[in-house]
Amino acid sequence: MIGDRLKMLRKEKGLTMKEIGEIIGVSDAAWTKYEKNRAEPSIESLIKIADYFQVSLDFLLGRTNIREPQFVEEANIQSEFLKEFEWSKIGDPSQMYFLVENLSTSIRKYNEHKVTELELQLLLKTISDVVLYFNTLAELKEKYKSITKEVLTEHRKTLSQIIEDLNNILEEAYKDILDGKK
């Protein structure tokens, strides 16, 4: 498997086995063995290869088809988060999967140019504000055992910000219409 990946990456860059061997610091004979799966690169060589081709080690080893190291890391973090949520045994975990799926859809819509970066950023800010609000309320609940002026003030402040963010998303989504362009 690794040999196929190495050969594919080398050919994508238009390099000979000798050229890539020099770049990585191995002989062309060693590289030939790697590509034919007769030998495996050392960990040090794997890291150099991954860095040179800007792919993740998991991609090189065939553990994922995601090339970009940051996306592999994000996927791993997301997977761990969802596992923790399931292990917590609170409520219906499908709600968390639903949220993650919808966030992924929003990012896909951005990548397909169906929403603007500003719209997506406003959405992410709004979600972040709601999560921070939830955590702040939990802290206030610990500090004050009943609803107090501080709790209500925090609620009004956060609610106002969330409504403003939602209005900004709406205005951004329909700005062409509001500007009289459509």
List keywords for this structure.
182 residues; mainly alpha; 434 Repressor (Amino-terminal Domain); 2 domains; 10 helices; Lambda_DNA-bd_dom_sf; DNA-binding; Cro/C1-type_HTH; Transcriptional regulator, XRE family
TL;DR of this structure?
It holds the Pfam family HTH_3. It is built from 10 helices and no strands. It is mostly helical and 182 residues long.
Structure description:
75% of the residues lie in helices and 0% in strands. α2 (17-24) crosses α3 (28-35) and α8 (117-143) runs antiparallel to α9. The protein has two domains: 2-67, lambda repressor-like DNA-binding domains (434 Repressor (Amino-terminal Domain)), CATH 1.10.260; 116-178. The longest helix is centred in the C-terminal third of the chain and has 27 residues, at 117-143. It is an all-alpha fold and 182 residues long. It is elongated and about 75 Å long. The chain contains ten helices and no strands. GO terms for molecular function: DNA binding. Keywords: DNA-binding. This is Transcriptional regulator, XRE family.
CATH C-level class of the largest domain is: Mainly Alpha
H/E series = HHHHHHHHHH
Q: Count the domains.
A: 2
Overall mean pLDDT stands at: 83
CATH superfamily (homologous) name of the largest domain: lambda repressor-like DNA-binding domains
What is the strand tally?
0
Report Rg.
25 Å
Uncertain runs with pLDDT below 50, 5 residues or more? none
**Biggest sheet: strands, sense, closure?**
none
CATH topology assignment of the largest domain:
434 Repressor (Amino-terminal Domain)
* Structural class category: mainly alpha
Q: Give the helix level as a range of percent.
A: over 70%
First CA to last CA: what distance?
Answer: 53 Å
Instruction: Please give the CATH architecture of the largest domain.
Output: Orthogonal Bundle
Number of helices: 10
